[in-house]
Amino acid sequence: MRARLEETGYLVDHGLAVACFLALRLARPIFCEGDAGVGKTALASALAEALGAPLIRLQCHEGIEASQALYDWDFPRQLLHLRAAEAAGVTDADRLESELYDRRFLIARPLLRALETQPSVLLVDEIDRADDEFEAFLLELLSEYSVTVPELGTLRAEAPPVVVLTSNRTREVHDALKRRCLYHWFDHPGFARELAIVRRRLPKVSERLAEQVTALVQTLRSEDLVKPPGVAETIDWAEALDALGASEVDAELAVTTLGSVLKYREDVERAQGLDFAAVLRASVDVR
């Protein structure tokens, strides 16, 4: 499992590789929790690539309803069909009703698409942004991997999709949903692992630049920031500096490009007071 994920460019530690293996072997969702930008969403993409399966994504948000995630009826097409049937002289109400609620008029949203697509990887992203009612609905669906459409009956997955749920922990997700899943906490990686990720994702970036950017981000995370940068921001910063033609970075260039890695005014102001030159000198010594 670890080797197949790393072939896609996604580097995993032993614990995460075991969790992914068990998720596949036991057909259980994997619940990924941690700060934004630490690789939770990217895991689902890597799993889809490793398994040769489509990635189906459900982006959660405040107020999301089951109908937005599951299915809806294509009312415009149903209306056109009804008018065509009436023009053809069809008056049998039972026949019209059965035709109107045919499977061809059902619009499958992400959850239903995942149940009907084998194999597939279902990403339920930022479940912590949804409300309690949606959580309860999702728990029921993941317990049975089936859904009942009143007009059509029960639609059941022939084989359960691989399910990845992510949470940035803006609120606590209920224990009932977590118990249904395998759990993995995503922490910020150490220097060596983060550097390896940057080198893997950006092979054209100079080794020196990758080392410096990684060292700078590790330092920024140790500060009391509103939003500490994740691995995604490390990659963004290195990519931005490379786009500027830099093969290495100095303190002035680091301050100039802070907008690539920090997204809050308070964090930028705090970072501007740091001694980046000292951090860069230390990174040379470590090397």
Describe this entry's structure for a reader:
With 287 residues, this protein is an alpha/beta fold. The protein has three domains: 2-67 and 112-186, 3-Layer(aba) Sandwich (Rossmann fold), CATH 3.40.50; 72-103; 191-286. The protein is built from 15 helices and nine strands. The strands form three sheets. The chain has a five-stranded parallel β-sheet, with helices on both faces. A two-stranded antiparallel ribbon has the order 3-4. α10 (191-201) packs across α11, α11 packs across α12 and α11 packs across α15 (276-286). The protein starts with a helix and ends with a helix.
- The rounded Rg comes to 24 Å
Strand order of the largest sheet: 2-5-8-1-9
Number of discrete helical segments:
15
Helix percent band? 40-55%
Outline, from the CA principal axes? elongated
N to C succession of SSEs: HHEHEHEHHEHEHEEEHEHHHHHH
What is the CATH superfamily label of the largest domain? P-loop containing nucleotide triphosphate hydrolases
Q: β content, as a range? A: 5-15%
How many structural domains does the protein architecture include? 3
CATH topology of the largest domain: Rossmann fold
Q: State the separation between the terminal residues, measured CA to CA.
A: 32 Å
